[in-house]
Amino acid sequence: MLLTIAGFDPSSGAGLTRDLLVFDHYGLEGLSVCTAITVQNEIDFKSVEWVSEALIIQQVNILFDLYEIEYVKIGLIENMDVLQTIIEQLRSLNKEIKIIWDPILSASAGFNFHDDLKLSSSFIDQFYLVTPNLEEAINLQIIDSDKNVLIKPQHAHILIKTFHENKSQVEDLLIGIDQEKVFSINKIKGASIHGSGCRISSAILANLFLNSTLDKSIKEGKNYLSKKISKKI
């Protein structure tokens, strides 16, 4: 079973409802835990109200009481302390659980959730995959402003979305154990979509659940997002 732990977006462009829609696209039913209530639409962000850490854990626990959960995506969280508590609880309930964390530092409409966060390789190694975009990767000090890699995980993988782009292509960089790999896709000129990070990370999770390899899951996630932007699906 898949689980998304994320914020609620009334427009369903991002957050847990969008994750569930992506799971459904792949014929999968997902579970959800709410971490925040946002007041937003695709172009405007008004406010956020955080769900307490205790209530988040209660939501997690009652789902594990009934379901065998193997794959989890974590999106919007209040702070690193809450995130660490969630990770520890998930691992106490399933030591083999695979967790994707999609760091959300700001809303596409311009609201900043977090500033001046710094990650360590040991923190990242708690996840299976972390999926920041280029700006988030710099802010989290995974890479520097010249795109030099500062953190090389020992167990996890880091996918930096839109690491490089030119007139025709967009490239994502996957940093793994002693390796780096580039995933390219044709650029759709002038196109963007609300919740793109949520969409690609949940598509990757769905494909991992369907027993695809990480490389194939990333390629499918990128193709899914590209088609969605092109309004083909």
What's a quick, concise take on this entry?
The protein has 233 residues and is α/β, with parallel strands linked by helices. It is built from seven helices and nine strands, in the order E-H-E-E-H-E-H-E-H-E-H-E-E-E-H-H.
Descriptive report:
- With about 230 residues, this protein is of the alpha/beta class.
- The protein has one domain (about 1-230): 3-Layer(aba) Sandwich (UDP-N-acetylmuramoyl-L-alanine:D-glutamate ligase).
- Helices cover about 35% and strands about 25% of the residues.
- The protein has helices spanning about 15-25, 55-65, 80-95, 120-125, 135-140, 195-210, 215-230; strands at about 1-10, 30-40, 45-50, 70-75, 100, 130, 155-165, 170-175, 180-185.
- β6 (about 130), α5 (about 135-140) and β7 (about 155-165) form a beta-alpha-beta unit.
- The protein is globular and about 50 Å long.
- The protein starts with a strand and ends with a helix.
- The mean pLDDT is about 90.
Q: Please tally the β strands and state the result.
A: 9
Annotation field: number of helices:
7
CATH architecture, please?
3-Layer(aba) Sandwich
Q: Can you summarize the main beta sheet?
A: 9 strands, mixed
**What gyration radius follows from the Cα positions, in whole Å?**
16 Å
What percentage of amino acids are in beta strands? 25-35%
Order of helices and strands: EHEEHEHEHEHEEEHH
Distance between the termini: 24 Å
Average residue-wise pLDDT: 89
Question: Residue ranges: pLDDT <50 for 5 or more in a row?
Answer: none
Overall morphology:
globular
Fraction of residues in helices? 25-40%
Number of separate domains: 1
Tell me, what is the CATH class?
A: Alpha Beta
Strand order of the largest sheet: 3-2-1-4-5-6-7-8-9
The CATH homologous superfamily corresponds to: Ribokinase
CATH topology: UDP-N-acetylmuramoyl-L-alanine:D-glutamate ligase
Alpha-beta classification: alpha/beta
